[in-house]
Every structure is written in structure tokens, then in C-alpha cells.
């Protein structure tokens, strides 16, 4: 089997959980983005990078968005339902160099646990909720909808099954 690194950046563990499942299924190295630099990655045939979505940005993506790798697969983990989301703007911001894009991108749903949020994150969510509430129904984005539906609660949408397309793709490419 080829050398694969699964790298993640996660504040509250949902992205980390998906990364752990992927690494386990592919017998890959699991690395915390905060503990690696680009030079550590040259030994791998494939990099699978996963980051949590925070205020429309993909955590830690600069690690892999500026250097070229043999194979790069990216996954995002957010609160909004991926079936309702348009990720074009997020991915355009994450990969500003149009000439270099990941081979594949996947979007998974995480969760949120309000009592566990940091003061800063909880304040931000309160602010976001107030902004969303001022909008008319037709103006509310998928993220806004998810904030209103889950505000103040503990919700967990993580699901191992959603990884099947990513795992199938990687196995085919590196077969
Ligand atoms: C301050 C804050 C901002 C967030 N912004 C977004 C967002 O823009 N889009 C989204 O889908 N989810 C957003 N979320 C939800 C997180 O992406 C979600 O909780 C995810 O599962 C977190 O991943 P982690 O547990 O790996 O940190 C936000 C959460 C917080 C606390």
C-alpha cells in the first residue's frame, strides 16, 4: 500500500474523529496539523487534509493549499447540511491559486456542543444568530439555518457511512 497521511485541524473533535476513521480505514499516518510542517509531508504519496469550518473558512488549509503534492484530497467538517450548502466561495478562498486544486473535495457534517464552546466561539455564535434572525426566510443560508436549528444545544451529526465515497476514491487511485 502507498504512503498516506491524514492531517486534521479541529477545535472540538468532530474533524479529528473523521480523520481517525479515515486513517484507520486506509492504514494511514494520522497527523495533527498544528504539529506538522510542509517539509514533513514530502515522504507521502497522498495527503488527505481535513479541517473544521469556522466563519466560512477552512481551518489550517494553508498547510496544503500553497505547495504541490502528488495527490491531495481535502475534506471539510461543518454544522450545515452538506446537501444544502454551496461550498464554492469557501473553496475559492481556501485554494486561491486556480492552477493548483485538490484532486477531490468532500464535505461532512460535524456537530456542536454549546456548553463546551470557548467564550469567544459562543459569543461569535450569538452574534451570528442575531444577524441571521434579522434576515427573511429566503435570505437565510444553509449555515444560518443550521445555527438557528441548533443554537444552544448539543448536536452530533457525525456518521462513518459518509466516508465511503472518499475511501473508495483513495483506494482506486492508489490501487
Ligand atoms: C465560531 C464558530 C463558527 C462556525 N462557523 C461555521 C461555518 O461557517 N460553517 C459551518 O458549516 N459550520 C460552522 N461552525 C460549526 C463547526 O464547523 C462545527 O461545529 C464543526 O463540527 C467543528 O469542527 P471541529 O469539532 O473539528 O472543531 C462554526 C462553529 C463555531 C463555534
UniProtKB/TrEMBL annotation:
PROSITE patterns: FLAVODOXIN, FLAVODOXIN_LIKE. Residues 4-175 form the Flavodoxin-like domain. GO terms for biological process: heme biosynthetic process. Pfam families: Flavodoxin_5 (PF12724). GO terms for molecular function: electron transfer activity; FMN binding; menaquinone-dependent protoporphyrinogen oxidase activity; oxidoreductase activity, acting on NAD(P)H. SUPFAM superfamilies: Flavoproteins. It comes from the Bacteria. PANTHER family: PROTOPORPHYRINOGEN IX DEHYDROGENASE [MENAQUINONE] (PTHR38030), PROTOPORPHYRINOGEN IX DEHYDROGENASE [QUINONE] (PTHR38030:SF2). This is Flavodoxin-like domain-containing protein. It comes from Pseudolactococcus reticulitermitis. The lineage of its organism: Bacteria, Bacillati, Bacillota, Bacilli, Lactobacillales.
Amino acid at each position: 500500500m502507498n504512503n498516506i497521511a491524514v492531517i486534521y485541524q479541529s477545535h472540538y473533535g468532530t474533524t479529528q474523529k473523521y480523520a481517525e476513521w479515515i486513517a484507520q480505514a486506509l492504514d494511514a499516518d494520522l497527523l495533527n496539523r498544528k504539529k506538522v510542517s510542509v517539509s514533513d509531508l514530502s515522504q507521502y504519496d497522498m495527503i488527505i487534509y481535513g479541517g473544521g469550518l469556522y466563519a466560512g473558512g477552512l481551518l489550517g488549509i494553508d498547510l496544503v493549499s500553497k505547495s504541490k503534492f502528488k495527490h491531495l484530497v481535502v475534506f471539510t467538517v461543518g454544522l450545515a447540511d452538506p446537501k444544502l450548502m454551496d461550498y464554492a466561495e469557501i473553496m475559492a478562498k481556501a485554494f486561491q491559486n486556480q492552477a493548483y486544486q485538490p484532486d477531490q473535495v468532500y464535505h461532512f457534517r460535524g456537530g456542536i456542543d454549546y456548553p463546551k464552546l470557548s467564550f469567544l466561539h459562543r459569543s461569535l455564535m450569538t452574534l451570528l444568530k442575531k444577524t441571521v434572525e434579522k434576515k427573511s426566510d429566503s435570505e437565510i443560508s444553509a449555515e444560518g439555518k443550521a445555527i438557528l436549528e441548533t443554537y444552544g444545544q448539543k448536536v452530533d451529526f457525525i456518521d462513518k457511512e459518509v466516508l465511503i465515497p472518499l475511501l473508495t476514491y483513495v483506494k482506486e487511485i492508489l490501487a
